Amino acid sequence: MDDRKVLQAEDWRQLEHLVPIGFAFLLPYINLATTLLICALAVVHAVYFSPRWIRITTRDREQRAGVSVGKLLYAVCVLALILVFHDRIYIAAGIWAILAVGDSLSNVVGRRFGKRKLSYNPSKSYIGSLTFWITGTLAAWILIWWNLPQNSEFSPGRILAFSTVAALLCAIVESLPPVIDDNLAIAWVGGASFAALFAIQSPLPTPVMDWKLALSINVVPAIIALLLRWISPRGVLLASLFGTVISLGLGVTAYLTICFFLLLGSLVTRLGLKRKTQQGLAEPNRGRRGVVNVISNGTVPFIIAVFGFWLHDSVLIVAYVAAVATATFDTVATEIGQWLGRTTVSPVSLRRVPVGTPGAISLEGTLAGFAAAAAIGVVPLLLGWLPLAGIIVVVVAAAAGGLSESLIASWSRPKFVYAGDVLNFYNTLVGASVGAGLWTLVSLS
After folding, report:
1. How do the pLDDT tens digits run along the chain, 445 residues long?
2. Where would I find the H helices in 114-155?
3. 379 Cβ contact partners less than 8 Å away, ≥ 6 residues apart
4. Exposed / middle / buried, residue 115 (Cβ in 10 Å: 0-12, 13-18, 19+)
5. Cβ atoms 200, 193 nearer than 8 A
6. Which one-letter DSSP state was computed for residue 283?
7. Where are the alpha helices (DSSP H) in 148-251?
8. Quick check: 72 and 144 in contact, CB under 8 A?
9. Is the dihedral of CA 192, 195, 200, 204 positive or negative?
10. What does pTM read for this prediction?
11. Taking the domains of the chain in order of start, what are their residue ranges?
């Protein structure tokens, strides 16, 4: 197939991706059972009818496999959004709008005009990501307004602000190298973003401490990290920015928690360094972290802390601690496993694999990861920030995040430059999401 036909086929695929959003305008007028039936039919269409009847929108590898995973996940994500937000259908509509309009139009515009590519993902372009943000924002704004109850307290301006923030976060995630399907990533991040945004009561931020104090408490840890060569100079600057925002949004306990992660992570990286170096498994620069490491492990805690300027509840606290505990679990399990692990297995096949194989797990590393995650929870527990039951939730969430990374790494074996860093971002996102979900269930029981 020549380039022109490939381009036209991809355009038809994006049209198929876009058209179903029309059903979102019917949501206020049909009941939940009818909505779920339509979503179920969409799943059947994605699994059976589309690959066989609309072959022009089905890529070659999907035709060989007999199913389009992307189309299936798109339909399943919409179904899941309807189920999760059935009592706030306007949120489901807003995420669906970003998923349908932002994703499809960014693809069309990016392929035609995206000459300047993203440095961290050459398959994406700046104009494509900008198109995603703008069109996703407008589509979400329209559909949320359309689906809001008539007596809603949310003004058009506030809805636009929420849509802008959620679409931006989704655009950033969509621009990342493909570790997981972007339909799943957009629905996931969009759902979490809108759930938090619509919980905000006052538009005015309320930091928990003075900004000068928040900035000053970063000085001593930054100097120590530089002197001990734990983080590069540029990494320290970014980490200090993250630390300041975390202190302002969630307080000094949150800051001490992530500092404890830095301490544990830096120490275990140097354990068995000689053996790891001989096996070619040691972190570069003797384990010295840089800007990319700070971003991959710190972005999710940072974003949660930003929401802390407006939201002050236990769910946010547990999500934050779970994200940090997940980063700790992953780092400690990996480093100890490479140092002391006698038998490493693939979590997918459960067969023995060489030490250092992407996604491989060991008993020694896993036990160390559990202990490290529990230790992270002890800091906020002792300072009265996290209840005792919260530690159990945090450890379970951290294990879920660590397992998710191992499964993805073992299953898909991503081989691009920043594969490990993107996986680190997603595992902290899993940890935070599982922690928030479990704590919500605990609070309701």
Report:
1. 456 666 777 787 888 889 999 999 999 999 999 999 999 998 888 888 777 777 777 777 767 766 778 888 999 999 999 999 999 999 999 999 999 999 999 999 998 899 999 988 988 999 999 999 999 999 999 999 999 998 888 999 999 999 999 999 999 999 998 888 899 999 999 999 999 999 998 889 999 999 999 999 999 999 999 998 889 999 999 999 999 999 999 999 999 999 999 999 988 888 876 776 666 666 666 667 889 999 999 999 999 999 999 998 899 999 999 999 999 999 999 889 888 877 888 888 888 888 777 788 989 999 999 999 999 999 999 999 999 999 999 999 999 999 998 888 887 766 666 778 899 999 999 999 999 999 999 888 7
2. 126-147
3. 253, 256, 257, 260
4. exposed
5. no
6. P
7. 156-175, 182-197, 211-216, 219-227, 233-250
8. no
9. positive
10. 0.92
11. 3-197, 211-444
Buried/exposed 258-283: b ≥16 CB within 10 Å, e otherwise: bbbbbbbbbebbebbbeebeeeebbb
- How many helices (H) and strands (E) are present in the chain, helices listed first? 20, 5
H or E element that contains 253: helix 252-270
Question: With contact defined as beta carbons under 8 Å apart, do 400 and 329 qualify?
Answer: no
